[in-house]
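Project standup — Tuesday

K.O.: blocked on the structure for the chain from last sprint. Re-posting the sequence here as requested.
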Amino acid sequence: QVQLVESGGGSVQAGGSLRLSCATSGLPYSARCLGWFRQGPGKEREGVAALHSRGSTTYADSVKGRFAISQDNAKNTLYLQMSSLKPEDTAMYYCAASGRCVSSTLATGWYDTWGQGTQVTVSS
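H.V.: unblocked you, prediction finished:
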């Protein structure tokens, strides 16, 4: 059974930090890309950070310098370290996997498998 299971969300004050985790299992393909996405209230889902199997990373401009994506292959787990959080970072955060990507893309259309999401709420 294919699963991407996010954890680590919660409520923090502005300036705080959180680390999200995404445990992956059962993928029927070798994930070329793993990514984090978010969807705020009334907004479209947007890419936050992506990691290609060759090691390249891509970040949305809004999170550069504050968020870091990483992967522990031994644990089949993807991470998103979030620091200096802002109220505008409030959203449901999703991890996703792609077997088709050619680069560490943030475009949602490249991703085939999605988790259920974990909520992040940042208060001012």
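K.O.: great, moving the ticket to review. The first strand starts at residue 3 and ends at 7. The CA atoms of residues 48 and 63 lie 7 Å apart.
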